[in-house]
Amino acid sequence: MEPKEKAALVLQKLKKLYPRVKTALNYSSPWQLLAATILSAQCTDKRVNIVTKTLFAKSPGIDDFASLSQMELEKEIRSTGFYRAKAKNILATAKKIKQEFGGMVPRTMEELVTLHGVGRKTANIVLSAGFGKNEGMAVDTHVKRLSYRIGLTRHTDPVKIEKDLTALIPRRDWDKFSLLLIQHGREVCTARRPNCAACVLNKVCDSAFRV
Fold this sequence. Notes:
The chain is mainly α. The chain is built from eleven helices and no strands.
């Protein structure tokens, strides 16, 4: 099966399986989405949502964050792990957005990746979920694992994986394809014990019943 044909089939089957897929992070503004995504590094979305429920109630906007001290923010986000680095990045990013972008979260990949703690994955999430723009595809640990197992890429570097996947999937579905792989990775194609017998992709997956 040709790679594009396989990718189209994977997209079709996962769309049918998860018709209402969306980002698991809770937010009410592009800034909150950006902050939550930074917090989600090496942390579950469930834990981030618990933390941000309180955090965003106290400090909903960029101005609120910019006025927080490092110690105050660290205390709020401690349970997300790597809290010192995350607090430092979020505070620096809030201040930079205020100073250089008029208090508005940037809307381009080039500008977003200049922010502290923001790489392509975070930028892609903010662009797609926050602004409805598909400039690339977010490649997290689930997307990396599933795309390799299925046989849609032979790379392990996220940037190269993103390039492979965006060449196979129509641009209008870049954001959805990433979310679908993430959902499937959480529910079926888990890291340690993938449930190949119950997987709708087991007839097209290169690794079915082998991992």
